[in-house]
Amino acid sequence: MSEALGMIVDDASQQMNKAIRYLENELAKIRAGKANPVILDGINVDYYGAATPLNQVANVTVADARTLSIQPWERQMLGAIEKAIIASNIGLNPQNDGNIIRLFLPPLTEERRKELVKRVNNEGEQAKVSIRSIRRDAIEQIKKEQKEGLSEDVAKDGEGRIQGITDRKIVEIDQHCKDKEKEIMTI
Length: 187
Hints:
Strand content: 5-15%
CATH topology of the largest domain: Topoisomerase I, Chain A, domain 4
Radius of gyration: 22 Å
Number of strands: 6
Order of helices and strands: HEEEEHEEHH
Oligomer: single chain
CATH class of the largest domain: Mainly Alpha
Distance between the termini: 52 Å
Structural class: alpha+beta
Number of domains: 2
Helix content: 55-70%
């Protein structure tokens, strides 16, 4: 196999792995009824005029199965953290006692569980679209190489390898979604 074709296949594989990691991160943010500090990832707090990730201005811990505790490193940050959590629209109301902020995760209703499963499946579908887009781009690059002198047999072999990687990644996405759905639907 030519060096250019090998680079195309490796690049496509790396991009697909990034898409899988992104899906894993997004699925971790979907709460399944258990307290997990990851649901606060992506929340930025106004820290002296700069948008700073919450975990860089406070200590986030799991107090029990349904409670997160947020202990700011500076007491005056309590209000800013509270505002950021409310603005993030994660569906949790912060309880501020003057020292720490507590987030109580309500038990999930059957309706809410079904909504979360739909969201999981939507994230999975977006990941599949991303994987297929990467496959399309890689195959276009292979066809361009074929026009520049790559033999047809080698090009077909490269396309087959790209398709094989794509199929494995789609199965991996389905498995991630199935596992998360099982976690959400378990009462």
